[in-house]
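Write out a sequence, fold above all:
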Amino acid sequence: MKLTGKQKRFLRAEAHHLNPIFQVGKDGVNDNMIKQIGEALERRELIKISILQNCMEDKDEVAESLADGTDAHIVQIIGNIIVLYKESENHKEILLP
C-alpha cells in the first residue's frame, strides 16, 4: 500500500501536535530500536522520531531503515524529525481519507 498525497497531508496534520517519543543518536539505528518503534507503531499508529545532532547517519537513510524495519510509511521528514505511520492491527484509531 502506498500513501496518497491526500492521506499524507491528513497524517501530517494529525502528527502536528505530537512530541517525538524516540531519539536516534550517534549509534544510529539498531535492532532493539526497530523492535521498540514497531511496538509503539502498533499502539499509536503515528509517531515522531527525533534525530539528534550527533547522529552520523543521513536522516533520509535513518528514515528508510526505520520504515523498512517496521514496515511503516514515511509520512514526513522535516528538519531532524521523522513522522512514521503504520496501520495497527489491534488498536486501529486513524481512519485515512
